[in-house]
């Protein structure tokens, strides 16, 4: 068993050394301009002489790829903007986002911390990113821009299900827009059975109940 642990440790150490040898950030450069962007500071993730990621902090309010940004930004090697905070109200893909909205584009979708409450595809999504206590309140989108998950501004009924508004209870939708899961804000009958307030309920894409948990902190379930 001891030899197994030694072999495992050696393997992990080898991976760590390889990552650090072939993929590492440069030192921070301060008060520089790259790609017409004024940076307070910036550094680059390099692998085999190729730049993979540009991580920086822009000066005051900078225009990055036509988008008004402030504070931290992340771009990939072709200077495509991936992570940013809006310095002003701005429209992206026909949706106007408020100032202070933080947007993270990923392969599996988009993670958004809204600058303030706003309506998206008919639902009021909670957000106030400029306040420190709201950093966990986020909205998620599928790669095609459809709403995936959000924290409702107030209690809302979706597919006839009473969904609770709470910083501890978000709502998820299927790609077809049908309710995927939420926490009940009131006692409610589903498929002939009564479920208590604060029960977390999950549905398939056809609206059939597939799970019900009795706990507010439903993600702690076994």
SS element count, helices: 1
Please tell me what the overall shape is.
Answer: elongated
Helix content: under 10%
Distance between the termini: 30 Å
Secondary-structure element order, as H and E? HEEEEEEEEEEEEEEEEEEEEEE
Q: What's the alpha carbon Rg, rounded to whole Å?
A: 22 Å
Q: What about the largest sheet?
A: 14 strands, antiparallel
Give the beta-strand count: 22
Oligomer: single chain
Structural class: mainly beta
Low-pLDDT parts are 1-22
User: Average pLDDT across residues?
Assistant: 87
- Strand content is over 45%
Structural features:
1 helix, two-stranded antiparallel sheet, mainly beta, 222 residues, 14-stranded antiparallel β-sheet
Summarize it.
Among the domains are: 22-88, no CATH class; 156-220, no CATH class. The chain contains one helix and 22 strands. The chain has one helix spanning 2-22, and strands at residues 23-25, 29-34, 37-47, 50-64, 67-76, 81-86, 90-92, 95-97, 102-106, 109-113, 118-120, 123-125, 139-141, 147-150, 156-158, 161-163, 171-173, 179-183, 188-190, 193-195, 200-203, 209-213.
Could you characterize what this model shows?
This protein has 222 residues and is mainly beta. Among the domains are: 67 residues, no CATH class; 65 residues, no CATH class. Helices cover 9% and strands 49% of the residues. It contains 1 helix and 22 strands. Strands 1, 2, 3, 4, 5, 6, 9, 10, 13, 14, 17, 18, 21 and 22 form a 14-stranded antiparallel β-sheet that branches. The chain has a two-stranded antiparallel sheet with strand order 7-8. A hairpin with a 4-residue loop joins strand 5 and strand 6. The longest helix is centred in the first third of the chain and has 21 residues. The radius of gyration is 22 Å and the shape is elongated. The protein starts with a helix and ends in a 9-residue tail after the last strand.
């Amino acid at each position: 068993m001891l030899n197994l642990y030694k072999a495992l440790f050696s393997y992990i150490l080898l991976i760590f050394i390889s990552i650090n040898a072939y993929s590492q950030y440069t030192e921070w450069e301060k008060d520089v301009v790259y790609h017409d962007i004024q940076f307070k500071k910036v550094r680059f993730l390099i692998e085999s002489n190729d730049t993979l990621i540009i991580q920086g902090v822009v000066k005051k309010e900078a225009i990055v790829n036509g988008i008004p940004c402030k504070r931290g930004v992340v771009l990939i090697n072709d200077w495509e903007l991936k992570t940013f905070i809006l310095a002003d109200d701005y429209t992206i893909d026909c949706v106007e986002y408020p100032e202070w909205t933080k947007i993270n584009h990923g392969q599996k979708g988009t993670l958004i911390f809204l600058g303030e409450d706003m309506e998206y595809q008919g639902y009021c999504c909670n957000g106030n990113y400029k306040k420190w206590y709201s950093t966990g309140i986020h909205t998620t989108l599928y790669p095609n821009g459809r709403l995936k998950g959000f924290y409702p501004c107030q209690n809302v009924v979706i597919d006839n299900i009473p969904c609770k508004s709470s910083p501890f209870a978000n709502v998820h939708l299927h790609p077809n827009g049908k309710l995927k899961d939420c926490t009940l804000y009131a006692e409610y009958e589903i498929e002939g059975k009564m479920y208590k307030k604060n029960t977390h309920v999950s549905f398939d894409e056809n609206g059939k109940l597939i799970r019900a948990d009795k706990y507010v902190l439903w993600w702690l379930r076994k």
